[in-house]
Amino acid sequence: MGGFDAVYRASIEDPERFWAEAARGIDWDQPPTVVSQGNRWFPDGRLNTCHNALDRHVAAGRGDQAALIYDSPVTGTERTYTYAELLEQVRRAAGMLRGLGVEAGDTVVVYMPMVPEAVIAMLACARIGAVHSVVFGGFAANELAVRIDHAKPKVVLSASCGIEPTRVVPYKPLLDAALAQATHQPGHCVILQRDQAPADLVQGRDLDWAATLAQADPADCVSVAATDPLYILYTSGTTGLPKGVVRDNGGHAVALHWSMSNVYGAAPGEVYWAASDVGWVVGHSYIVYGPLLAGCTTVLYEGKPVGTPDPGAFWRVVAIHGVRTLFTAPTAIRAIKKEDPSGAFTGKWDLSGLRYLFLAGERLDPDTYHWACDLLGIPVIDHWWQTETGWPIAANCVGIEPLPIKPGSPTKPVPGYDVRILDPDGNLCPAGVEGAVTLRLPLPPGTLPTLYRDDERFAEAYLSRFPGHYLTGDGGYLDADGYLYVMGRIDDVINVAGHRLSTGAMEEVIASHPDVAECAVIGVADELKGQLPVGFVVLKAGADRDPAEIERELTALIRDRIGPVAAFRRAVVVGKLPKTRSGKILRGTMRDIAAGRPYTTPSTIEDPAALDEITRSL
Ligand code: COA
Ligand code: AMP
Questions:
Q1: pLDDT confidence of 1, banded at 50, 70, 90?
Q2: Are 438 and 477 in contact (CB under 8 A)?
Q3: CATH topology for the 493-617 domain
Q4: Non-local CB neighbours of 257 within 8 Å, separated by 6+ positions
Q5: Per CATH, the architecture of 4-303+383-437 is what?
Q6: 455 — phi, psi (to 5°)?
């Protein structure tokens, strides 16, 4: 292998050769003879992702190595599963699903907290060729219902409760409420009973996880086509209906396996910890599939960076489990910094084994970057990607060749990704000039081939704006050295504590309030969470209400309909929203004002005073 630039060039000049070579890292039931066809990778290959994540490591002698370390400060539990033990659990869970009538191609919704059974559930689906769709626990019943209606699962796998530092969150009533609202009904719900809040089971529909598992016959791997879906992961789009990102089996296994050594520099047998949640793409790729495909030990952490019990929580996990690579969101580091600005808690633990800190999920601000660098004395690596791609688009690929770091930049496009910055007319922007960050087609393996049951929305949302290019939704620029700078979303998506949320979905909820005539939600900068949503609302004529009361009602409404994770707490009643004369709300200008960016008042504005009102209220 050559230096980074040579590897990158090879991936862009001859992607077929590049990815055919990477595909050798995976066990195939039928090796692919065709590397790509349109946006499908390895179309005639057959494999099983679970086999690649578990069985093959056991067969190769890693059976006694730790595969998964469950560390849960919120329950005071620590448990290690070897590869052999995890395989046994997954075989049984796969048999349980089989017994409930789940076949290859069927969908299964997983609505679980950060417990080992969530990982087991995902791998069990993969084992029998079923398609999992994991829903994050911080969403409200309504969001779960929308996903159930779209994914139409045969079975829902859930738990009685999740545990947040300050409270137990009963999941089962949320699931019951979601099913009461949903049109589609699964055949069964299998519920993992947790001591903190056991759930009532609905006779005939609900089954107890432990009892059902105990009766299951273990199931072996089913061979699937590389292009068959492994999972669907819903992510925020511009409307209330989330986008069902589809991940295939073959391209995903090849790309993630490749990324573990080349992007993260992780070797089999090492401990790799992504401090995220299985409900997000980071959890799918780098808690579950990536580390296991690579034969690493993964850590499943049920806790927070602070408060469980202190800002030394991450350093404890790193030290006692021998973590070599830590991956988290900048928000988590900002939360630690806020509570332990001098970094005193790092001194309590031996962090000498930690080699890299990778950060993603939102922009890494230079202050946080410098604080973490000074504190840890190891490379702190910003990298940029999204649910749709499933693995990094831009990173410092330390496994190929570590490049000098430029704070504020996630370094260079990763091999496989042809990043192009385009102006509104589709022309390439010169170095240093900001535009839409796009990826020239074809996308590399592992990225989304389509949206679930919605090829049209896929084409419309991602491929239509600039023909031949995939639209990432982010704005940014490349500098003269080819380093990428990602400046933020250019659409209605915001990032709150590393959680991706749709302002459009929040607007739909706010608009349903009986006193609201119209509204706009934008993300404003927040020191801890990166961004927080703020709603601007115009009340209906005659709705003479106390603005503080309206704010309280809208806060409760968003919490109830979208979930606590939206962290919506601010609604400002204004006389008018800034609009063009043709009636379009000037969201872009509002976003610029909120971000403190220079802006020009559009000549098409209906009433400039409306913009002044927004500026004053921020
Ligand atoms: N189930 C139920 N509720 C959940 C939840 C879950 N899985 N996850 C979060 N929530 C709730 C929280 O309890 C909180 O509720 P509250 O409004 O009643 O306090 C709300 O959703 C917001 O949660 P969170 O975003 O976690 O904020 P926080 O203020 O509790 O904690 C941080 C702040 C920075 C510590 C936390 O956001 C964090 O650890 N961020 C890391 C981000 C991350 O891992 N992102 C994944 C992408 S890499
Ligand atoms: P998600 O799909 O939840 O992973 O969110 C993806 C979005 O988060 C991207 O489109 C970016 O807007 C933002 N994002 C993720 N990582 C970074 C990063 N390293 N720098 C800047 N923005 C990021």
A1: low
A2: no
A3: GMP Synthetase; Chain A, domain 3 (3.30.300)
A4: 22, 25, 26, 52, 290, 293, 294
A5: 3-Layer(aba) Sandwich (3.40)
A6: -60, -35
Q: Which amino acid, 428?
A: L
For residues 553 and 524, the answer to whether their CB atoms sit within 8 Å is no
The structural domains of the chain, with segments of one domain joined by +, span 4-303+383-437, 438-489, 493-617
The DSSP output letter for 288 is I
| Termini Cα distance of the chain | 52
By most ligand atoms within 8 Å of CB, the mutation choice from 234, 278, 363, 388 for ligand 2 is: 363
CA-based nearest residue to 317, from 329, 307, 305: 305
d(CA 579, CA 31): 57
User: Is 233 in contact with 452 (CB distance < 8 Å)?
Assistant: no
Find the 233 Cα to ligand 1 centroid distance in Å: 19
Per-residue pLDDT tens over the stretch 81-114:
999 999 999 999 999 999 999 999 999 999 999 9
Residue pLDDT, tens place only, 511-561 = 999 999 999 999 999 999 999 999 999 999 999 999 999 999 999 999 999
- pLDDT of 437 reads 98
| Residues forming beta bridges with residue 534, ordered by sequence position | 522, 570
Q: Which residue's C-alpha comes closest to atom 21 of ligand 1?
A: 565
Per the DSSP assignment, residues forming a β-bridge with 170 are 161
What DSSP element (H or E) covers 206?
strand 206-208
Helix, strand, coil proportions of the chain in percent (round to 5)? 35, 25, 40
What does the angle CA 338 – CA 344 – CA 350 come to, to the nearest 5 degrees?
Answer: 125
Say if residues 523 and 591 touch (Cβ distance below 8 Å): yes
Closest to 532 measured CA to CA, from 488, 510, 501 = 501
Contact 139, 115 (CB under 8 A): no
Look up residue 112 and give its two tokens: 């679980």
pLDDT for res 598:
83
Token reading at 552: 């309280």
pTM higher than 0.70, yes or no?
Answer: yes
DSSP 318-362: HHHHTEEEEEE-HHHHHHHHHH-TT-GGGGGS--TT--EEEE-SS
**pLDDT digits 0-9 by tens, 428-464:** 999 999 999 999 999 999 999 999 999 999 999 999 9
Angle between the N-to-C axes of helices 503-511 and 547-561, in degrees from 0 to 180, rounded to the nearest 10? 120
- Which residues contact ligand 1 via a Cβ below 6 A? 113, 137-138, 162, 164, 169, 276-277, 280, 282, 304-306, 329, 331-332, 335, 361, 497-499, 564-565, 567
Any idea of the CA torsion for 372, 319, 137, 212, to the nearest 10 degrees?
Answer: 160
- 3-class DSSP state of 567: coil
- Strand pairing class (271-274; 297-301): parallel
Which ligand is the nearest neighbour of the Cα of 567? 1
The residue behind tokens 């107890």 is 208
Distance from the CA of 380 to the center of ligand 2, in angstroms? 17
Among 495, 496, 501, 529, which is best to mutate for testing ligand 2, by the most ligand atoms less than 8 A from CB?
495
pLDDT tens-digit series, residues 294-349: 999 999 999 999 999 999 999 999 999 999 999 999 999 999 999 999 999 999 99
| Residue 557 to residues 497, 510, 567, 594, Cα–Cα distance (Å) | 20, 8, 12, 24
